[in-house]
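CORE FACILITY INTAKE
Project code: CF-77B
Contact: R.S. (postdoc)
Sample description: multi-component assembly, two entities in total
Requested service: structural model of the whole complex
Turnaround: standard
Below are the sequence entries exactly as provided by the requester. Do not edit them.
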Amino acid sequence: ETGVTQTPRHLVMGMTNKKSLKCEQHLGHNAMYWYKQSAKKPLELMFVYSLEERVENNSVPSRFSPECPNSSHLFLHLHTLQPEDSALYLCASSHAGTGNYGYTFGSGTRLTVV
Amino acid sequence: QQQVKQSPQSLIVQKGGIPIINCAYENTAFDYFPWYQQFPGKGPALLIAIRPDVSEKKEGRFTISFNKSAKQFSLHIMDSQPGDSATYFCAASLDTGTASKLTFGTGTRLQVTL
């Protein structure tokens, strides 16, 4: 365990389904991130939350909708996804604005869209 | 300007060898350069990191060399072991004041053989 827990670990969903990914951190961090990891591509930053406010939306399609109800929890709500959205979705957390830039990642949710 | 270029894509070395992974960046505003190690089924884990005012950093068998004028940095793994077989990502961080945005390289898959 890294201190960042993601659930579920695996998810298979149809293109018309609605599902949510959950991330929880117990490290006292105040910034949380969603990254997408696809084969043979760099990790892509999707969303950044700092102090529970969204500070970055990296041109992500609206079928992905993040939610950060408090500094320990982050969700990614999914609806009407496409097969090309199949990937490993990683959550990370860090301290914001303290000069300590190290991210702690969760183990990810392996998403397959059928 | 936000890209981080990483090479090689894959690397095979014998046990005891010294694999070297190289990265290059363009944006001189980057102020923190971490390396992450990822095993199958796990999220990336912070391995070692360096700031641009330092030319070299060692932690155990892992060394980062940093060349600020060339905008390049590299990871050296001394006395490599089969347990080091993993994918390695370099990254560069930009502190926005409210969060740290990491830009990742494409990864290097390292295999250490007996």
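Facility notes:
- Residues 4-113 of chain B form a domain with the Immunoglobulin-like fold (CATH 2.60.40.10).
- Chain B has a mean pLDDT of 93.
Invoice: internal transfer
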